[in-house]
Inverse folding.
């Protein structure tokens, strides 16, 4: 009951129980025990505000949002609008918190895996948790086989690779199907990704995606899928409008070549973070190696180098970079420790475990994750669906 006090009406329940129980409590115990229980309930309120769910809830309370129909940023609407505009059909995998938004905008063409309600079968809930953790659901089943069993046609990955909140750990799924056999990336930005299963039944979906990009004059190869770097180079205005890059991206590229050391370091750090979050790991690695060449103590570049090398399936080099990071990290630097331990753990895992480790490994702190999105254009707020 204490853990469940996250909605206002649930906060009344402990008080109602205390009130209903008071006569019997008074008959069996001293009155002091009743007051002690009441005081305990009051003392738990600051705990809820500081340590409970309130920090997570309050993050999404912004007065200006109440003038809108919904906060598009919260629901990764760039990707949702892409799926709606391309009229994708079939079975969609999505995380639970996005279910209601997705069900409203994309059904019945796309069937949500979990629709955000409390009416979720236990089997589907367990499968959803397994997919989020990038694993099978027991019985020797792999992650890919679990997606096959549920005939998932479209995979909606979400999240920036930052450390989760202690109040509400959130698993980031943006890179779960990166370079996965049998899947094509069809959209990617800094916060989300859409993958399409490469099977014959999805041929119409792939044609719709190709037509969508052709109409927008955005490069797209139906064979290899969405190429982030190519899109940024060939269609920068579209890339900015759809959340791939911040509006100061090209100024950052100029500043990254500045003769002023501090300005150059700041720009390179931000550029490398952008490329890493977009999956352009070779570019991120090159920028970080340049940075470490003149600033070998740069902790963020050292972390990112380990992460980018693991993402490129170069664990031996990642382990060497992790040893250098270990020299730089300080006591209590939990993120660096995760990145130091990851290449060591990598060799102890089977191939499926290695993929899960790399896919779910965080890259940045929560403040760094927020800074990554500075200057990124929000998705539009659309009018209600026609009935």
């Amino acid at each position: 009951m204490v853990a469940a006090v996250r909605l206002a009406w649930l906060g009344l329940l402990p008080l109602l129980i205390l009130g209903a129980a008071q006569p019997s409590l008074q008959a069996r115990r001293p009155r002091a025990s009743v007051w002690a229980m009441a005081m305990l309930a009051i003392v738990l309120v600051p705990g809820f505000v500081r340590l409970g769910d309130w920090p997570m809830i309050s993050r999404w309370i912004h007065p200006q949002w109440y003038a809108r129909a919904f906060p598009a940023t919260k629901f990764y609407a760039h990707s949702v609008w892409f799926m709606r505009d391309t009229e994708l059909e079939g079975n969609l995998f999505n995380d639970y918190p996005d279910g209601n938004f997705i069900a409203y905008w994309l059904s019945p063409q796309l069937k949500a895996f979990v629709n955000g309600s409390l009416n979720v079968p236990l089997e589907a809930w367990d499968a959803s948790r397994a997919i989020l953790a990038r694993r099978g659901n027991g019985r020797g089943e792999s992650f890919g086989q679990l997606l096959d069993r549920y005939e998932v046609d479209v995979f909606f990955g979400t999240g920036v690779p930052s450390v989760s909140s202690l109040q509400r750990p959130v698993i980031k799924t943006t890179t779960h199907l990166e370079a996965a056999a049998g899947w094509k990336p069809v959209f990617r930005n800094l916060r989300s990704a859409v993958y399409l299963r490469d099977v014959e039944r999805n041929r119409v979906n792939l044609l719709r995606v190709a037509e969508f990009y052709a109409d927008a004059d955005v490069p797209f190869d139906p064979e290899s899928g969405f190429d982030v770097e190519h899109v940024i180079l060939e269609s920068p205005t579209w890339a900015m409008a759809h959340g791939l890059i911040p509006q100061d991206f090209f100024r950052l590229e100029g500043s990254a070549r500045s003769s002023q050391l501090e300005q150059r370091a700041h720009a390179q750090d931000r550029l490398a973070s952008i490329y890493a979050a977009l999956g352009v790991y070779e570019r991120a690695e090159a920028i970080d190696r340049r940075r470490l060449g003149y600033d070998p103590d740069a902790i963020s570049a050292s972390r990112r180098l380990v992460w980018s090398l693991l993402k490129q399936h170069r664990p031996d080099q990642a382990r060497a970079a992790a040893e250098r990071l270990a020299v730089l990290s300080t006591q209590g630097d939990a993120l660096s420790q995760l990145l130091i331990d990851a290449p060591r753990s990598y060799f102890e895992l089977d191939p499926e475990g290695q993929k899960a480790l790399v896919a779910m490994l965080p890259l940045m702190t929560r403040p760094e994750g927020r800074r990554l999105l500075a200057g990124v254009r929000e998705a539009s707020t659309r009018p209600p669906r026609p009935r």
User: Anything to note?
Assistant: Confidence is low (pLDDT under 50) at residues 1-5. The beta strands are 90-93, 110-111, 154-158, 183-188, 192-197. The longest strand covers residues 183-188.
